[in-house]
Amino acid sequence: RTLLGIESSCDDTAAAVVRLKDGKGRVLSSIVASQTELHAAFGGVVPEIAARAHTEKLDTSIQSALDAAQLGFGDLDAIAVTAGPGLIGGVVAGVMCAKGLSAATGLPLIGVNHLAGHALTPRLTDGLAFPYLMLLVSGGHCQFLIAHSATRFERLGGTIDDAPGEAFDKTAKLLGLPQPGGPAVEDAATRGDPERFRFPRPLLDRAGCDMSFSGLKTALLRARDARISDCGGLTVTDRDDLCAGFQRAVRDVLIEKSRRALQQYLEMSPAAPTLAVAGGVAANTAIRTGLETLCDSLGVAFTAPPLRLCTDNAAMIAWAGIELLTAQAVDPATLTARPRWPLDDRAPVLIGSGK
Ligand code: ATP
Ligand code: FE
């Protein structure tokens, strides 16, 4: 089985070809055309600019993915496309492109939930078996899910306000670092002192594995402004220390809440418990290592995809498409784009995430 995957739900236009052979997934090509430079002057992703850029880049990205895999449409079994959730203009661009290709080639069309793409990535990279506990931590989401199958995810808890990726991006903006904020803040944090500024660890006093990150952002703003009013500005050391303190707080919350989610999960006595992490923030080394240490101490297996498959890509969409094709979940040509699409019906609507 060989699928083309298309992803355009945020600010990356991506196309990839993935093959399932002998029960294993193999990424034959994965093209990611980033729009970072287009949005740089605005300090965040501008939906209209993103949508236009996707329409310009989709066809060439798809051709590049096919060329890199040395395949043509005749070698494919289906076309998988992100049908939500995300910035609607971009999702519409991808869905319409996939529909056109499907109509022209006669290949089946598969609409993929972007979050399922992130959450199923460990099955592509590690062949991880169901069920497993997934911490999905990205630019717009943060949730603990039990992945039962490619179409059934059970939510144990998650953020009640912002997503950590968004907090990383805002932190970068407040400190004059480039977007996307995650890698920039992580880099500064490696040189900083995580103990100098003490940031809150919200909701640790509350049972369960819900989280909150909006207070952290406010605390960072206050700490920054206090430094500016005391000293007239921020030194590079101040900035690095703020980043290190912020990252340490996010890491501590994710570790402690993962401990609780794991407790909940272990009470359901899964045979071989595994915690898998995915999404853009899973590319953060301090967070990955922290979670790995937690799992080691609990005797739970841990897995995290390679960095390039944590942030948005189309290989995860092609892979999710393979899983859906196996489950015979093919879509009709009336497939539509969905701005919101929770993986689990009990998921609350995020406040203030802009998504
Ligand atoms: P979602 O998947 O929730 O719809 P998205 O697709 O925009 O949102 P992803 O591409 O999965 O998000 O992740 C992007 C986010 O990950 C950004 O907020 C970015 O700052 C963050 N990120 C990327 N690399 C790192 C890193 N090394 N450390 C922390 N955060 C990171
Ligand atoms: Fe994403």
TrEMBL record:
Chief site of localization: cytoplasm
Gene Ontology MF: a single term: tRNA N(6)-L-threonylcarbamoyladenine synthase activity
Class of the enzyme per the UniProt entry, highest EC level: transferase
GO term, biological process aspect, one: tRNA threonylcarbamoyladenosine modification
Catalytic activity: L-threonylcarbamoyladenylate + adenosine(37) in tRNA = N(6)-L-threonylcarbamoyladenosine(37) in tRNA + AMP + H(+)
Pfam families, sorted: TsaD
Keywords: Acyltransferase, Cytoplasm, Iron, Metal-binding, Transferase, tRNA processing
Subcellular location field: Cytoplasm
Highest taxon of the lineage: Bacteria
Residues the entry annotates as binding Fe cation: 114, 118, 312
Protein name: tRNA N6-adenosine threonylcarbamoyltransferase
